[in-house]
Request: fold
Amino acid sequence: MSLISTDKVTYEYIIRDKNGSVEGINRAVDEVDMTVEQGEFIAILGSNGSGKSTLAKHFNALLLPLEGTVYIDGYDTADSDHLWDIRQTTGMVFQNPDNQIIGTLVEEDVAFGPENMGVKSKEIKERVKNSLESVGMEKYRYKSPSKLSGGQKQRIAIAGVLAMKPKCIVLDESTAMLDPAGRKEVLNAVMELNRKDKITVILITHFMEEVINADKVYVIDKGKICMSGPPRLIFSNAEILKEIGLSVPYATLLSNELRKRGIPLRDGIVSNEELAGNICQLLQTI
Amino acid sequence: MSIIADHIVYKYNVKTHFENIALDEVSFKVEDGEYLAVIGQTGSGKSTLIQLLNGLLKPDSGTVYYNGEDIFDKDYDFSGLRGKMGLMFQYPEYQLFEEDVFSDVCFGPQNLGLERAEVELRAYEALKMVDLKDEAFYRSPFELSGGEKKRVALAGILAMKPQVLMLDEPTAGLDPAGKKWLFKLLKKLRKERDMTIIFISHNMDEVAENAERIIVMDKGNLVMDGKTREVFSYYDELTGMGLDIPTSSKILHILKENGISTNADPVTLREAADEIERLYKARLH
Amino acid sequence: MLRDITLGQFYPIDSILHRLDPRVKIICTFIYMISVFLVRDVWGYLAATLFLAIMIIISKVPFKYMIRGLKGILMIMILTAVINVFTTPGKVLLSIGVIDITLEGIKVAVRMVLRLIFLVMGSSIMMLTTTPSRLTYGLERIFKPLERFNLPVHEIAMMISIALGFIPILVDELDKIIKAQSVRGVDFNNRKLSVRIKNMIPVLVPLFVSAFRRAGDLAVAMEARCYHGGGKRTGINPLRYDRRDHIAYLVIFIYLSMIIVIGIIF
Reply:
């Protein structure tokens, strides 16, 4: 059984004018089919307004599909009897670090989820400690979250999700508001969780470089999945990506340019190290 | 005509336990028509610096001269400065408030005391400049997408026809297409309106591709000031400050580490491609 | 920076008072406040002062933080004193024109001012030794029985503690909005009332829009973390009465009895 599977999921927003009458209907998610297996690192790539965030909110039953079904660990999200099981299975980290802090101390914030689930105090303490250790924030346990940097706040939010012992973490554009250092912090933290604890990660982003290490990338445009596959395959379609407001990693861009100039580099280069390695190899074998 | 920062010192929480120097004796000069990027880690004083340049913050000592006049002098015409120096903050949500997009863009020129016809003309021109679709003119600014809000916010500043445009992390939150669009517009503004452009960025590739000069801030100090290529040649110093460098420099750096001798310091994609092509052809012959 | 504004007045050190259960502190402060209205004579005031002094000492909070709260009500104290001195009938000590200063007036004034000082300093001790979140949690637990009458005690406590967290963020945001609108030519230095009122619109609209957006985001984030009201929630640091808490109740009980006894005897 897949951890997450969606079947022709469709969601629409209704646009109203000033007087409240319906002006139009915006199909934000359009017949999306996807499956996510336990332990995978999945990336969903899309430009501003592509519907990627709307889709993400279906994985946690924050939104219910207008048509189609979403299954999380075997539960249909439309089945309200299992709402809390679903939310516990797939935890979400959102975009704005300031808008998801609930506690006045780091410890209280991380404890919020398990408190809601009715976990016993002693176990909450244990979970808070372990979750903070997993994201390297144990030093800040008794600090006020308001004094932390953006990247640190997002790591606290991840710890808050971990304390609920989820099978999957969905990062809904969680790196969009951070500086490069903060982005790296958050990305490293989730990649570590994926590798060590086999937690499934779904990363929603518009930064090409962040998806290089994903097992599988879904590219979404106007609510539809227009491509899916391993990063290398996705980034070999530079033209299509450009058309939908996206791009390819810098190394891919440069290797495409070099190939155009007649330098026989291999296909599917996505990282700087790969590109440099390939150039070295080429120069040394001449 | 120029902007001169003269030994600016700015402190937070003066006379409390938390007193903290945000800027320490910062001096530099920006000539008309320059295209300048300010880089530095979060908290290095970049934002404080550009807020001082247009008088939003007052320095604790030192001053700023705009076109030869001290902007912190009590007789200085501050409202006049507002029309000449534009600043766009990172989040467009800070400035949008009117019922529709067009009125919001009119707000700035209106405050300059211009006539209604002129105000509307400027607003229209500015909205055209940022490529906003006509049908969005009379929509509420709050209903727009993030990218569109940014365009409206920028139009609101451009309608005041500033000579200097400062932008605090203008590409934050924009997707690749949005970023490309923004820098194309900045280029056009420089060419057509002769504007001086100063922007803050964390993305070194966009700095390398666009700026002609870079100021590097570190812990409240101006530590480097020079031509883009020159500044980025200080690989170790920049990475030592926790800053990124352009991807092209990074790739060439890996090549050097692997024993490929090159003296070039490419910062843009084209330059990197040129250098690698040269190396390749040299080996072929 | 504006973010450094401290909310509430919590003074972060460790003392017996800091470690007490917030419920104990709230209830004891309340009892102390009542006692202040029971005292009538010198002995009573002496007892109340002594009790306050001991609490200040064992709280380990510097005295200057304690009297900080008094500065805020200085005007009220002066006003109370003046009104009482001049309006209380009794044995005239001094006449200035139509105004008589009476002995009774002075007595009443001193008594009132002392009471005000006791009230403010008593609550200051509580605020200085308890974090805002513990305080709200304590209040929530004290008023929990009222939930039986459909009073949303948990929800109110949750609202208060979230609001406290958002205030520094909104203060920071307000500063940025004012700057963004200054750039667009709004003159915030203009002293004319009509202009100042007009200038509030471009500041308040973005602030409200942002506050609503933040509230919406937070509601979604809470829901995503399984929040569904107070029902079966547990706590990471549940309130449990310790030995020292029982001792504290005993102390305040002895103090209150003393005050009552003094009132009867003298």
